[in-house]
Write a structure and sequence with these properties.
468 residues, alpha+beta, Chloramphenicol Acetyltransferase, 3 domains, 6-stranded mixed sheet, 14 strands, globular, acyltransferase, transferase, O-acyltransferase_WSD1-like, Acyl_transf_WS/DGAT, glycerol metabolism
Length: 468
């Protein structure tokens, strides 16, 4: 049987255009070990691990006449050097220069004729550091058969580089005749598939919305607020092709102190810090805020499979992410009240018994947040941008160091994609005592994304010093 893309995976390909590339990314920064961390060593490391990710050596093949959804086929011309690229900043490279490079890389679509991922080994960072920038299409990472590349190459202890022999042999690509015969066989079994596929590839919005609604259950199983249009504002504008990327570095202990003083969860405090920053950012743009003004965030959260006693890798199947619409109270001037409002809004999720504690997520091997952020992006990409203003993903990571080979990872920043008519997406990851924010903004609509990043730090300080 052909390895056919699911309706949801195919939809990410159909709706993609130059202004909304549908890939999720990450920026990992490493300390270079004494014996070095070279491009060649990274190639060896990724090459060794690709055996566990067959999807990363497959490309998408269209069916003639769009009689069925595309299929995954082995890339007979797979070239690891094409996908793992080498780049450098003028020494000593600054973080600002790195993040400018990230913004440019993330604005470019992946080549649809090749496996849908890229990695960039960036040298020249000040302090003898190197960075790894990854891009993976949302159709690739499903959390079931395929995880994010950044999760697979990281280990809990330094690993000595090992020579390896690549024994992979691609399967022969199916012929046009075989693709058509397979499609006809499936159409006989499900005659409505043909009409739906033709309409979807023609970008029929109504057909696409219906198709995604049918298949989105494996990624976003619940919306916990009434689905109504999101408030209008500067975050919902026509998306351009350019991007701006900024980061925030904070300490996990600060969020825990706020939680201890005012209740709620660490995730509530993260959302409250972002809410305070969005309030100041809107005010700086002359927005007229009232006490009831809100910004609606789509907040994908990991959940536990009701039939699984313990959180484990199989529990990622089917109930990986619930997507919650949370109205952030940006009109509320009091920081503690903002936190309380958010805590109440998230209470249904916590009371459902399906939420997963941070320590539970860490039982998944490798750096699981990379995969969880990808699944969060899938949840956002499968929904209409009219019902939310901003995507915010927050995934806890391990509080011990991780390594790529011998190189210790010191920081990790998610890069969440923008969907159509969305100007901002925020990814948050905790790792080894830090909480790291990655802000991906539209270059025209949110050119001052670095200003917003600074306001998140100020908002957290406000929460730390807040009193009733």
């Amino acid at each position: 049987m052909p390895d056919r893309l699911s309706a949801l995976d195919a939809s990410f390909l159909y709706v993609e255009d130059h202004s909304t590339p549908m890939h999720v990314g990450g920026v990992a920064i490493f300390e270079r070990p004494r014996d070095g961390f070279t491009y060649e060593r990274l190639l060896d490391l990724i090459g060794q691990r690709l055996a566990f990710l067959p999807r990363y050596r497959q490309r998408v093949l269209e069916v003639p006449g769009h009689l069925a959804r595309p299929v995954w086929v082995d890339d007979v011309d797979f070239d690891l050097n094409y996908h793992v690229r080498r780049s450098a900043l003028p020494q000593p490279g600054s973080d600002g220069q790195l993040f400018d490079l990230v913004a440019r890389l993330m604005s470019r679509r992946l080549d649809p004729g090749r496996p849908l991922w890229e990695a960039y080994f960036v040298e020249g960072l000040a302090g003898d550091r190197v960075a790894l920038v990854t891009k993976t299409h949302q159709s690739v990472v499903d959390g079931i058969g395929t995880i994010e590349l950044g999760q697979l190459i990281l280990d809990a202890a330094p690993q000595e580089p090992e020579p390896f022999e690549d024994n992979w042999h691609p399967r022969r690509e199916p012929s046009r005749t075989q693709l058509i015969l397979d499609a006809i066989a499936e159409t006989v079994q499900r005659p409505t598939e043909l009409v739906e596929n033709v309409r979807s590839i023609a970008h029929d919005a109504t057909a696409m919305a219906g198709k995604v609604t049918e298949t989105v259950g494996d990624v976003a199983s619940a919306l916990k607020t009434m689905v109504s249009p999101a408030p209008s504002g500067p975050l919902n504008v026509r998306t351009s092709g350019g991007r701006m990327f900024a980061v925030v570095r904070t300490r996990l202990e600060d969020f825990r102190k706020v939680r201890a003083a005012h209740g709620g969860t660490v995730n509530d405090v993260v959302l409250a810090a972002i809410s305070g920053a969005l309030r100041e950012w809107l005010l700086s743009r002359g927005s007229n805020l009232t006490a009831t003004t809100t910004v609606r965030a789509l907040v994908p959260m990991a959940v536990r499979d009701a039939e699984t006693a313990e959180f484990s890798t199989p529990a990622l199947v089917g109930n990986q992410v619930d997507a919650y619409l949370v109205d952030l109270p940006v009109g509320e001037p009091n920081a503690v009240l903002r936190l309380q409002h958010i805590g109440h809004a998230m209470a249904d999720h916590l009371d459902s018994g399906r939420s997963v504690a941070a320590r539970g997520l860490l039982t998944v091997g490798g750096f699981a947040p990379a995969t969880l952020h990808s699944l969060g992006a899938r949840a956002a990409g499968s929904m209409s941008g009219r019902i939310f203003n901003v995507l915010i993903t927050n995934s806890p990571g391990p509080q011990v160091p991780l390594y790529a080979g011998q190189a210790k990872m010191v920081e990790m920043f998610p890069v969440m994609p923008l969907v159509r008519n969305q100007a901002l997406a925020i990814g948050v990851t905790s790792y080894h005592g830090g909480v790291y924010f990655g802000l991906n903004g539209d270059r025209k609509a949110v050119s001052d994304v670095d200003l917003l990043a600074g306001m998140i730090e100020e908002s957290l300080e406000e929460l730390k010093g807040a009193h009733w």
